[in-house]
Amino acid sequence: MKSTMEDRTFITANIGFLMAIGLVTLFPLYYVFTVSFTHPEEFISKGFVLFPESWSLLSYRYIFSTKAFINAIGVSSFLALAGTLVSLLVTSSFAYTLSRKRLKGRKVLMLLVLLTTLFQAGIIPDYLLIKQLGLMNSLWALIIPVMSSGWYILLMKGFYDSIPDALQEAATIDGCNEIGVWIRIILPLSIPSMVAFGLFFGVGYWNTFFNAMLYINDHTKWPLQMLLRNMIVDSSTSMGGSMALGNDLQLPSETIKMAAVVVATVPILMVYPFLQKHFAKGAMIGSVKE
Q1: Three-class SS string for the chain?
Q2: Rounded distance, CA 180 to CA 209, Å?
Q3: If you average pLDDT over residues 125-144, what whole number do you get?
Q4: Taking the mean position of all CA atoms in its chain, how far away is CA 40?
Q5: Fold of 63-282
Q6: Contact assessment for residue 189 and residue 171, using Cβ atoms and an 8 Å cutoff
Q7: Where are the domains of the chain?
Q8: pLDDT tens digits, residue range 223-271?
Q9: Where is the signal peptide (predicted)?
Q10: 19 to 9, 22, 30, 51, 96: CA distances (angstroms)
């Protein structure tokens, strides 16, 4: 089809509009990055820097020299790794159980899972439950309440429903029990979906801070996002003020905060490219059933 002048005008205007939206979206990321690498003297003298003349790693050296930041990275790494493994184990095993048509009480379990997607107890009941379980100030308080999701279970169940029954029956004839079928047959076939859901869970655990604010009072067990939250909200925290680096040079709190934000963001950005091929395929698995 031959494009008219109106079509070309619309396409040009649309591209320009989308580019403007993209620039507005990327500007905060660019500003955070540049400020984190700006030399303290230049930032103090100018206050607002878009194109720094002198680059510096002093802010990064400072945050990595503090014990609080190193502990926070360790806590977030533990939550992302251990929490993701636990969540995948619980979600995949429960979803496979619900996909077994011969399971007694299957409809009741499905109803309970659906109810969790519609109704939630709320903050206060959750807090009282965690307190009664003795999980206050425990990192498991940040994993157990969110280790699975009814929506993720239903999506993964949809993927397991798409696997032919004949394949599972053949494994049973060869001597596999239900657990053997799940481990040897189902899990290898569900790698794309496991990677996709693992990415969802990992990002959620890495970015957790609200549950930490509720359940963790010991600052040595704060995850990275909780530490960042306190750095931004409360300037009196151990990493929130200025720091003398010799020769009367003061390290501004803004550059420290921006450097911490970059460090907290980079690990997730680095994971996405390696998992993208599995993520694009696994995100759609189970969402449509023929």
Answers
A1: CCCCHHHHHHHHHHHHHHHHHHHHHHHHHHHHHHHHHECHHHHHHHCCCCCCCCECCHHHHHHHHCHHHHHHHHHHHHHHHHHHHHHHHHHHHHHHHHHCCCCCCHHHHHHHHHHHHHCCCCHHHHHHHHHHCCCCCCHHHHCHHHCCCHHHHHHHHHHHHCCCHHHHHHHHHCCCCHHHHHHHHHHHHCHHHHHHHHHHHHHHHHCCCHHHHHHCCCHHHCCHHHHHHHHHHCCCCCCCCCEECCCCCEECHHHHHHHHHHHHHHHHHHHHHHHHHHHHHHCCCCCCCC
A2: 38
A3: 90
A4: 32
A5: MetI-like fold (1.10.3720)
A6: no
A7: 63-282
A8: 998 888 887 776 544 454 445 444 445 677 788 888 888 888 888 888 7
A9: none
A10: 15, 5, 15, 21, 44
Residue whose pair of structure tokens reads 């048509």 in the numeric block:
101
Pull the structure tokens for residue 160.
């397991």
Return the structure tokens found at 213: 């604010």
